[in-house]
């Protein structure tokens, strides 16, 4: 591990290459580059999650921490690690001060693994428009986390307005195990009947202000073709915001899945005894790891987001963003003068 | 020198001259230079230095192609979809404003380094590994190079504007010291060339070079055609790209092979993986510096790695029409720290391809 104080991007590139040579190649090829944008207060959380994800998906981890945007002089401090604290691969933690924070891509671009996909993850409040962050422009996949925002429902709407194929949100990943349990329950009903099931109505009990609960409702609505809403339940739900899901099926049958608050859930369905399944709250690293598994567009997510927010046509949007220059210092003025920076496409 | 006899080689002693680029600034001026040099020295005593040819990896390209059976059978238009040759520099023009203003990226790099790399990539097998035979083959390729009909779309030049590079603010080209504030000299050039031989007909060679690009890198990438039939579901191979063979000339000299592989798990999903050969890992002995190797060759009189004047003239014959087309036009601007102007991206996008990110 080497720490470079008050350095520049070229020195970081050189140091990374030097460590690869002298340290013996721990990993000779990387499948992707993971760019993590984190707040100073959340760096250790983000590092832990990225380390976990890097264990199952060998990747180059680049952590970008933007600090003190108003610092008078730009400054870059970087920590270069190979096979150390941040997993088996190569990792660089960069702290950027001053205006450099607005040009983080100038340091990150040369550090990307050659011609490998780039995934950007904001473990911080993401920009309202991802196009304002050049890091989002060249990333093939962009992971946000609406649950970090103060008003997470507004955050979800913002994500829908700003959506481009390739975007995803960890609030969505948090409902994967609910989706899997629901799908297998309906499968077992249709297996017993020997014919497909139709969902006629349903409701989710939980926290209506929780983005995960809203996305689960959106997913059910888009899949079942009937509006399913989140209603405030009697009990306080866990972090996923879902306490129970009940679905009314055709042939006057009903299924219900209820979290048991001990990392599991109870499935009730007709003609079968109640069954317990594991439905734990998953750690951040697990969620991130799941998102790195597939690198193409997440269509169920865009469907769920459409249904949850009422904003349509998400999947048809262009997957390529153009960088839009945005200066937070100018944003406070009455009429922010936005100028379009020389555009670049997602290509190189 | 001629008058004083300094240029004369006799059986007891030799006189050799090393010529650095630029070898003229277009075909007529390079002919003039060649005539002048040849009138003083014998053709065997003139060594035109192109230091790229002294690089170990460039020589290894010949070993890779002609010492192995694995690559040569697929090294042709039946299997290769396109070839990309990139030489990117992160530095600006340094203190060479006076030289650069007159030269520009096409004359400075495209005419010599990139065309030489193209020639070595595309040439037929030489009869033996000797100066004369290699030159013969290279010359055949250089003479077979064709320019695109639509120069407007397939020959792009750019000029860097101020921006951020490697975490530091850098000046635009026009603001550099000694540069005309309205200069139209290009600092980036990208062009699509064809090689009209049986081996390469229909395969585009995309060449690009530029200053103030995100990192210093030179590489030759062969993009192979996609498999004519994939017996998998469409969604299984969504993330599968073209197979690639990349020869990295600098830095981290080596070869990368990129191909599809199954992602572990219960579903069939194919994704690109890369296999890396790093010179520095296999051979811990360090390679000689390019100039060391070339100067040694001059002393030994071995001209294998030096372009002969016919090659220089053939190269100018490629560049001259480009310069003529570009004369008077304004280069596309790009921000320092970007991979060149938008038009260069569009040039490949027009043919459903994209530049590899080195």
Question: How is this structure best described in words?
Answer:
Chain A is built from 11 helices and 14 strands. Chain A has helices at 9-22, 43-56, 105-108, 134-138, 152-162, 170-173, 176-193, 211-224, 284-293, 299-309, 328-331, and strands at residues 2-4, 32-38, 59-67, 75-84, 87-97, 118-123, 141-144, 167-169, 199-206, 229-232, 242-249, 253-259, 264-268, 275-278. An 8-stranded mixed sheet of chain A has the order 1-4-5-3-2-6-7-8. In chain A, strands 10-9-11-12-13-14 form a 6-stranded mixed sheet, covered by helices on one side. In chain A, α2 crosses α9, α5 packs across α10 (299-309) and α8 packs across α10 (299-309). Mean pLDDT of chain A is 85; it is low at 333-348. In chain B, 31% of the residues lie in helices and 23% in strands. In chain B, α1 packs antiparallel against α8 (309-326) and α3 packs across α4. The radius of gyration of chain B is 22 Å and the shape is globular. The N and C termini of chain B lie far apart (46 Å). In chain B, 41% of the residues are buried. The chains are: A alpha/beta (348), B alpha+beta (358). Chains A and B meet through α1 and α3 of A and β6, β13, β14 and α9 of B.
Taking the alpha carbons of the first and last residues of chain B, their distance comes to 46 Å
What's the N-to-C terminus distance of chain A? Answer: 29 Å
Shape verdict of chain B: globular
Low confidence ranges of chain B: none
Instruction: Give the tally of β-strands of chain A.
Output: 14
> Percent range for helical residues of chain A?
25-40%
| Total DSSP helices of chain B | 9
Question: How many domains make up the coordinates of chain B?
Answer: 1
Write down the domain tally of chain A. Answer: 2
- H/E element sequence of chain A: EHEHEEEHEHEHEHHEHEEEEEHHH
Order of helices and strands of chain B: EHEHEHHEHEEEEEEEEEHHHEH
Average pLDDT of chain B, rounded to a whole number, is 87
Strand content of chain A: 25-35%
Please give the largest β-sheet of chain B.
10 strands, mixed
Shape descriptor of chain A: elongated
- Beta-strand residue fraction of chain B: 15-25%
